[in-house]
Amino acid sequence: MLIQLLALLAVTAPALWLLKPHRWRHAGWLAAIAPAVVTGWLLSQLGAVSQGNAVSEQHIWSQALGLALDLRLDGLSLFFGLIIAGMGTAIAVYAGYYFERSSSLGYFYGLLFLFMTSMLGLVWADNLLALFVFWEGTSITSYLLISFKLSDNNALEGARRALVVTGLGALAMLGGFVLLGQMAGTYSISGLLALPASTFTSHALFAPMLGLVLLGAFTKSAQFPFHFWLPGAMAAPTPASAYLHSATMVKAGVYLLARLHPALAENPLWFWALFVVGGLTMLTGALIALRHYDLKAILAYATVSQLGVLVMLLAFDSKLAAVAAVVGTLAHALYKGPLFMVAGIVDHATGTRDIRKLAGLARKLPLLGAAAILAAISMAGLIPAFGFLAKELLLENFFALIESGLSQIGWAGLAATVAAGALAVAYSLTIVWEAFLRRKAELKPAKIEHPPSTLFVLPVLALTLVGAAIPFFLTSIEGTLFAAPVASITAAPAELHLALWHGWTPIFLTSLLAIALGGLIFTLRGKLHKLFASGPQLSGTGVFDGVVEGAYRLAGWSTRTLQGSSFPTQISIPLLAAAGVVIYAFSINLVADLRVDWNALPTFYEVVLPLLAVLATLVIARAQSRLSAIISLGLVGVVVLLIYVFFSAPDLALTQFLVEVLTLVLLVLVFYRIPNHAYPKQPKHRSLKYLLISAAVAVWGFGMALVAAGEPLFPLISDFFLLNSVDAAHGGNVVNVILVDFRGFDTLGEISVMVVAALGGYALLRASRMRPIEPEEDFEEPYDA
């Protein structure tokens, strides 16, 4: 059933695009059918999965190559799948009203549902390589969603940064997956999780494997110092921001860490990497959120902070930390998603997201105000919101560490959590007070030109009410909704006893302290803004742009140096590099035994043919006309052809003949078109330089010939092809069998290179016809984050 659900979403993407949904007033409800079906099916599996009955599927792609798509639905993948499909349902409805009658709505739905398919495939994959494929699917579709407005340079830059950072992290992660698969002897996720943790933690490759995997997770989940791409990605349309950057894509790294937690968490490297990086991200994101006036920018950095909390919790190998991570993940999705959607509606209604221009929206838009205030209360962690429960569990984790004797880590984590919690209260109050409650705006107030309909606000209100209701039904849902993902993270059965109120405990008093500090910071926010404005403006974006600019400058310098000079200079660089390698190899006796019989007398043609080639080469160098040089060059080719003939290589001789004929024809045609200029005579020092280069290249060629004539340094693979071409590939022509069977993927790669080159050439030919894309008149989303 899992593959059918993925297919349903994948087919819905082009179907909605082709149906042109902008022609229908309530198209969002039609678009929401597919994710709602997925959500309903996942809800129906809660009971069975919570009892430990995982759903596994294997779909064979190629029996001969051993390729199959393995999917598995256990507690963790079901939990994340519910968030992805449930939020997707709300976003589909929301997007229908957000874009109204914009003709780009169908294109947006197409990208959104392809992203949803990739995201669900990522959390359902039971194979590391399949997970990587879906992971990259989210990267590509998110790039297209962020750069949705092609006329917006901020969107293009944000998309480029997101793709480069997450793409490089994904490549590192792929290397880590390969090492992990080699260590486990399988790429099956359930297979490697079934092995003892010591299989990995005591392995010599554990440290490099862990570093590569963490790079992928940290870049995807915007951890410090890679957090800068997430606020830049807010240039995406708000429905995409609400879906990708609050509830789904940025949680992919968190999911990966939670998935691999049972296998890797015992090693101290895991703990310190996640604890330090997660803690720094939590504080950095919360502090930077207070610098901004743009609603989406504030929410973006608040998301960075919360992602740091989740990563930090996964550093611990305890049930309490796992419970806090699971509850925190759902709570964050149910308040951050609605808040992003609120920001989009405010922007839609007033034309701005700058909180200095907003005031009194709760009175003018009461439904939207109620949803925003409820969600902000949860983000601040105020009782009795869902966010309060998540914060209490986070604090409880550190109090438990202090009681167990790990006081230094416990107090450090507790202090950082209180600081981040206070900042969360401050920016939550800032959003609610300045945009919704105060009566007068700081700058020229924005007017509500386009009030939202009730149906537009409905998805926001529904998600907020679900989040607000969960804390009051904990006893009913903790066993089915939270216990199974906790058990997946800890690799042990989990029995939970969650409660919203535990009395006047040290945990609750600490929470009150964070709220009080947050209130104080809120009253001082004006001074803090001035302090931020007067301080240094160092940002990750600036560092990234500096690195990219440096790469461009290096590329420009190398291009000018290596390719901007004369042709003899350009060709001499790779030839001298090759000669240097051979000379170095001989100088250190790397090729000590050449096994050359110096006493053997050469045959007649072994003397005559090289002399002919040398004579023809001298004629090329001294030729006064192009035709003489081309004819002499052809003579060199004929000499090579004859060598193949005398040494019994007729297939190579035939190939050489065809290449020579083609080369001669092309050279004659090209030189026929080029004017015959008279070139000045080369100075003597330059001729001497070319002579020395030629001598070095001759040494290189002679050395390579000696090496080739000796005994092979490694066993030849030729015998394998001769013995197996008929039995394994059913072909008597060994060369053809090698090309299309044994090295079929090499040939496929070469064909792919040729196709890409052809497409590039076609694009260059059409480049002169391209015109700047005109912005669409009936839809405009400002961006000033």
Explain what you see:
The structure is a single chain. This protein is mainly alpha-helical and 785 residues long. Helices cover 72% and strands 2% of the residues. It has helices at 2-19, 27-31, 33-44, 46-50, 75-98, 105-124, 128-146, 153-184, 189-193, 198-201, 206-220, 229-232, 238-244, 252-264, 268-289, 295-313, 319-350, 361-364, 366-380, 386-403, 407-437, 454-469, 474-490, 506-523, 525-534, 540-563, 567-587, 604-622, 626-646, 650-673, 684-709, 718-729, 734-742, 744-767; strands spanning 55-62, 67-73. A two-stranded antiparallel sheet has the order 1-2. Helix 3 runs antiparallel to helix 5, helix 5 (75-98) runs antiparallel to helix 22 and helix 5 packs across helix 23 (474-490). Residues 781-785 have low confidence and may be disordered.
Summarize the structure.
The chain has 785 residues and is an all-alpha fold.
On the 0 to 100 scale, the average pLDDT is 86
Poorly predicted regions: 781-785
Ends distance:
42 Å
Helix proportion of residues, in percent? Answer: over 70%
- Major beta sheet summary: 2 strands, antiparallel
Structural class comes to mainly alpha
Please state roughly what percent of the residues sit in beta strands, choosing from under 5%, 5-15%, 15-25%, 25-35%, 35-45% or over 45%. Answer: under 5%
Strand order of the largest sheet: 1-2
Total number of helices = 34
- What is the tally of beta strands? 2
* General shape: elongated
